[in-house]
Inverse folding.
């Protein structure tokens, strides 16, 4: 499966009628072809998608990761300990090459640790089967990367709907939820635009909306504003914080951007070997005293579009 589609690798877990996917999505795509019979009854009967309102409680102990190169083990992380409480907003900073992105990928179950334990709301992730881990990841964890990874042939609305459609959420409900979160990030006037017709900041807003549409209990972001100018980066920073406050996800962001890191109530510095040093721990972010900002005003049809 391509790296682009891997974050959308979500098996079916509801008994709702199968919605019609956009015509250019192949029915044989491995991200879509899972069958309800392949999923344990406990998973099929689980709480419906979108009903979770609390962030994840995560306890990481003695986490290690090494790769084999030239017949020798190359350690990247060792003995990493971290506890995230529900609703935590954490920035992880540090020099390039110390293992920040590797740590985030392991926490998001996109990679497996060599040793150690990850307890996610009391469930041990390191002992799950691959199929159970994929189901868990895609129902409970949202991802935002430096590159937006939007599917170019689909509109903004369809891109955000995709995780819900793959979960067999009804088409109408998926459309309603996607339109709602796109409105919240200021893109209600861009629903029918494809990624190539959006500016860089708008593309990243769509990616954030896609990550949040299923209301994950953990949201992970890897340099989410690395490709944006200062103005767009600051807008994305604010959206991360406001959406976290409104929806209650636990948030962990890996970043080199000091402007984003300083906004987080909790900041950790990673040094060689993955050791995490607590630099700051303050009160939970409460956002502006006023109501959340209204969606962006509707610009002219070609405003912000990429040629």
């Amino acid at each position: 499966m391509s790296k682009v589609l891997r974050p959308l690798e979500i098996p079916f877990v509801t008994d709702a009628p199968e919605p019609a996917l956009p015509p250019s999505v192949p029915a044989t795509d491995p991200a879509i072809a899972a069958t309800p019979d392949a999923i344990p009854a406990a998973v099929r009967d689980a709480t419906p998608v979108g009903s979770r309102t609390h962030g994840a409680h995560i306890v990481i102990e003695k986490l290690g990761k090494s790769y084999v190169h030239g017949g020798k083990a190359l350690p990247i992380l060792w003995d990493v300990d971290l506890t995230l409480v529900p609703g935590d907003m954490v920035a992880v900073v540090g020099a390039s090459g110390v293992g920040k992105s590797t740590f985030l990928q392991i926490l998001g179950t996109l990679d497996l640790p060599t040793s150690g334990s990850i307890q996610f709301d009391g469930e041990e992730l390191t002992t799950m089967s691959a199929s159970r881990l994929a189901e868990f990841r895609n129902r409970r964890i949202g991802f935002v990367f430096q590159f937006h990874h939007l599917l170019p042939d689909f509109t903004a609305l369809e891109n955000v709907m995709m995780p819900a459609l793959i979960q067999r959420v009804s088409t109408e409900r998926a459309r309603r939820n996607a339109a709602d979160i796109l409105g919240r990030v200021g893109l209600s006037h861009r629903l029918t635009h494809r990624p190539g017709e959006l500016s860089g900041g708008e593309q990243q807003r769509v990616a954030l909306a896609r990550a949040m549409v299923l209301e994950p209990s953990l949201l992970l972001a890897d340099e989410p504003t690395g490709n944006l100018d200062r103005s767009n980066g600051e807008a994305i920073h604010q959206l991360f914080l406001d959406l976290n406050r409104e929806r209650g996800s636990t948030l962990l962001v890996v970043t080199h951007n000091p402007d984003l890191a300083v906004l987080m109530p909790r900041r950790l510095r990673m040094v060689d070997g993955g050791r995490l040093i607590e630099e700051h721990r303050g009160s939970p972010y409460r956002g502006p005293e006023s109501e959340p900002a209204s969606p962006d005003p509707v610009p002219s049809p070609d405003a912000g579009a990429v040629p």
